Amino acid sequence: MSWTDERVELLKKMWSEGQSASQIAKELGGVTRNAVIGKVHRLGLSNRAAGTGPAPAAAATAAPKPEAKPKPAPKPEARAKPAPKAEPAEEPEDTGSEEVEARSPARKQIIPAGQPLPPQPSANEISPEALAKVSEVEKKSKKLTLMELTERTCKWPVGDPATEDFWFCGLPAQSGKPYCEAHVGVAFQPMSARRDRRR
DNA sequence: CCCTGATTCGC
DNA sequence: GCGAATCAGG
Length: 199
Fold this sequence. Notes:
Structural class: mainly alpha
Pfam families: GcrA (PF07750)
Organism: Marinibacterium profundimaris
Largest sheet: 2 strands, antiparallel
Distance between the termini: 64 Å
Number of strands: 2
Oligomer: single chain
Radius of gyration: 20 Å
Order of helices and strands: HHHHEEH
Shape: elongated
Protein name: GcrA cell cycle regulator
InterPro entries: GcrA (IPR011681)
């Protein structure tokens, strides 16, 4: 494979979107993540500042070239948000007490998924912290399709499979588990963390 | 172990 | 220019 104009374009797009080199490589096909990284550097866009996403405030470690940065590329990515979030709290250590649920009167939970894939917590009570983490993680999800899942990507389904607003979390699964840390938290509940029958 | 990007250097 | 190998982290 060669770096055609289109492939380079896709590379630029995905890179500025914050996609990892390996993901870009998979998307492009026929190249490794090394190739992608190499190309990225050759293109001189090691800095991922493109206006979209959180400004990394990256310290330009090496930029002896006061090159003008031609990046008036506005990316009007319309994102349908089925789940209205309260507010973008960065790293809520633990506000202490808050009602994580009871914010969407009409809406059901954000994790419908009627398939046997996700072990639904049924009527079990999940730690509010875990739920908060899940909804928070959704924003960072890679939004992978079914075929993009690997053995080490979180297979937690998000959204409604019947609509377009459906994807898999795709974040790195922490262990031999099928989910990322956040989703493991709600998937595998320590049953009744109240049974301390210490012998 | 899994992953990430960064750099080098033979091609 | 290209990218595998390697390096240096998380």
